[in-house]
């Protein structure tokens, strides 16, 4: 998701960039856009890492841990998802059913999140493909302009 800062930046500076890009010749526009793309790509990995860390911190602990306050070690094991068979044997059927229901709800919510993330990934791939086609077209255009300019120049 776009941050508020980047979206406000793009809204605010779009007309200024369009005007300044019209004034520039094609090759300088191409260089400027390439530099911006390199900077954005360089920032992508650290930004993604930061976002993953924030999401990890925002994940709430399992509500099952609250239902089993008299078994603190079980609560910790649930958070780490590492219950031992001996722990399970000591629980009542009701407690086990609560854990099963919680796991099912976690699976369902994670599946929904996965579907949403896959849809976003597909949209981003489509957008990337479109950008790559545009870059290819611009590169061909720049090459043809260079050839045209080279042909116009009188050779000495």
TrEMBL record:
GO CC terms in record: cell junction; plasma membrane
Record's keyword terms, sorted: Coiled coil
Bias-annotated ranges (Acidic residues): 14-25
Recorded superkingdom: Eukaryota
Pfam families documented for this protein: SCHIP-1_C
Region annotated Disordered, chain positions: 1-26
Gene Ontology annotations of biological process type: positive regulation of hippo signaling
Residue stretches in coiled coil: 93-127
Keyword Coiled coil: yes
Domain Schwannomin interacting protein 1 C-terminal: 2-153
InterPro entries per UniProt: SCHIP_1, SCHIP_1_C
PANTHER family: IQCJ-SCHIP1 READTHROUGH TRANSCRIPT PROTEIN-RELATED (PTHR13103:SF2), SCHWANNOMIN INTERACTING PROTEIN 1 (PTHR13103)
Protein name as catalogued: SCHI1 protein
Lineage: Eukaryota, Metazoa, Chordata, Craniata, Vertebrata
